UniProtKB/TrEMBL annotation:
It comes from Actinomadura viridis. InterPro entries: Pyridox_Oxase-rel, Split_barrel_FMN-bd. It comes from the Bacteria. This is Pyridoxamine 5'-phosphate oxidase family protein.
Length: 151
């Protein structure tokens, strides 16, 4: 774990640390809400999604009418579309928190590829039958924490 400031920073300010791959996966492992970034044909866009972690891959759902589904549907069969996925947790009061970024290829998941027991339950109503898997080629993260505070 690299630290941007020394561990004995006398200023009392939070210290910014780089997180390794396993720390990043542990932080996002419980699932929840993250943001997917992709090019929808009109430029970069970001949308929130509910997700689960399946190994090192992120799985989420979208609607047939969704912009992300249309972006993936225009790709060649079997091809992955470059997307990014970000999850963070910020405590504004204490000015600490963490952020994890995954970048890689996203693709539609056929029924046989869906992980058993990995249920992604979107918060919004309506049908969201399209499952998408992001297989990351890069996982990075940073944590802002107080010196001497626990991980």
């Amino acid at each position: 774990m690299n630290t941007s400031a020394g561990a004995d920073d006398p200023s009392g300010r939070p210290v910014l640390e780089e997180l390794d791959r396993s720390q990043c996966l542990a932080l996002i492992g419980p699932g929840g809400v993250g943001r997917v970034a992709f090019d929808d044909g009109e430029g970069p866009t970001v949308i929130p999604v509910n997700y689960v972690l399946d190994g090192e891959s992120v799985v989420f759902r979208t609607s047939l009418e969704g912009r992300l589904h249309h972006s993936l549907a225009t790709a060649l069969t079997g091809a992955a579309v470059r997307i990014a996925f970000e999850v963070d947790h910020i405590d504004e009061h204490d000015r600490v928190g963490w952020s994890v970024l995954l970048r890689g290829g996203g693709h539609h998941m056929p029924d046989h590829e869906r992980p058993p027991g990995a249920s992604v339950e979107p918060w919004p109503g309506g049908e969201r039958p399209v499952y998408i898997r992001l297989t990351p080629h890069e996982i990075s993260g940073r944590r802002l924490r107080r010196v001497g505070a626990g991980a």
